[in-house]
Amino acid sequence: MFDTLSDRLQAALGGLRGKGRLDEETVSKAMREIRLALLEADVNVEVAREFTATVKERALGEDVSRSLSPAQQVVKIVHEELTRLLGAGDSRLVFGKPPTVILLAGLQGSGKTTAAAKLALHLRREGKRPALVACDLQRPAAVEQLEQLGRQIQVPVYALDRVDPVAAARAGVDAARREGYDVAILDTAGRLHVDEALMDELERVAAATKPLNVLLVLDAMTGQEAVNVALAFQERVAFDGVVLTKLDGDARGGAALSVKAVTGKPVKLASTGEKLDQLEVFHPDRMASRILGMGDVLTLIEKAEAAVEADEQAELERRLRAGEFTFDDFLASSKMLRRMGPLQGIVKMIPGLGRQLQGMDVDERQLARVEAIILSMTPQERRMPHIITMQRRRRIAAGSGTSLDEVNKLMAARKQMAKMMKQLGKGRLG
């Protein structure tokens, strides 16, 4: 996600390190590199020009803090301007009298149907009771796909008319209201291009259901074309915000960086992977931090909280207070890390670490090897690591298909972790 742009921006800003002061020539050179990086990322030309002009004006202006070095000052300004470009301000969904209607629009192939299911799961995890309404009667098997996704996430799908999309939408919302659901998410039809029939159908569905949120689903990987699609929709359908799909595969970031500046509508949600639980609220300030290699601690914390059940959290805290850290705890931590998502993405959220590991492969198979070693131990050995003798270590290595050296390293790592947990328990929780 944004890897190419991130590398280029960090390289451009890195050239400012060691400079004693910010003169116009130094800043102009950095801005040329940043503008080129933005254009290569498929950012709108006018957006790139305005962005670099604003950063340059501020960097050479009078709002320079004496507590920051010249390089830090420019990074701070770039971060603030990136945040503004990505859509600073409140971009949360609006909820009203149940059921709140959310209409998803977009071209065929943008990922609308999957986005609808992801949004339903996201809202359910936030305590809402969502229902899905099948209104895409154009694409073959679209209704069946939505029904299958609904079964996977255990959310009802209303497909009450297979001929008229307006009747299907109205009947679905009415059914959601009768059955006490908070939110009705409408999956509407798309076309291969913006056309009169598509817009007319969307207008009629919207008029019949009065959605509080109209979200335009755009494929992030289409870059500037996604922004052109947004402009074409805006001429006929007043949408409130954007859902960006396939953001995890977008190394450039042109759509995310241009759509708010060009349309005035914020990116509200972003799909960051193929799994149905990989939909995130789009936080411009956090995304700007990721792009600049500054990490994303808040999202990391949210992912950790979502990955750990309340009872697991309480038990882990109790053990931490006692200064205990067994191999059962080690195994639980490993599984929690896996639930948080791809390790490569998690590492990039840790400030400083993502930049240090740049270009290196974070080997997820290593986690599997650690788990294999622990699972080759007896329950007693996992609970009481101190009883694991050299003979037992050899047995564990053979049983897990690993080496004695790997087992020894894991034993040492657990001991170090237990020591750290004990100190943490005394220092913070005692």
Structure summary:
The protein is α/β, with parallel strands linked by helices and 430 residues long. Helix content is 57%, strand content 9%.
Supply the number of helical segments: 20
Which architecture name of the largest domain does CATH use?
A: 3-Layer(aba) Sandwich
Q: How are the strands of the biggest sheet laid out side by side?
A: 3-2-4-1-5-6-7-8
Number of spatially distinct domains: 3
Determine the structural class based on helices, strands and strand pairing.
alpha/beta
The radius of gyration over CA amounts to 25 Å
Order of helices and strands: HHHHEHEHEHEHEHEHEEHHHHHHHHHH
Total number of beta strands: 8
Helix content: 55-70%
- Can you give the mean pLDDT? 80
Largest sheet data: 8 strands, mixed
Descriptive report:
With 430 residues, this protein is an alpha/beta fold. The chain folds into three domains: 84 residues, SRP54, nucleotide-binding domain (Four Helix Bundle (Hemerythrin (Met), subunit A)); 193 residues, 3-Layer(aba) Sandwich (Rossmann fold), CATH 3.40.50; 130 residues, 434 Repressor (Amino-terminal Domain), CATH 1.10.260. It is built from 20 helices and eight strands. An eight-stranded mixed β-sheet has the order 3-2-4-1-5-6-7-8, sandwiched between helices. Strand 2, helix 6 and strand 3 form a beta-alpha-beta unit. The protein is flat and about 75 Å long. The two termini are 41 Å apart.
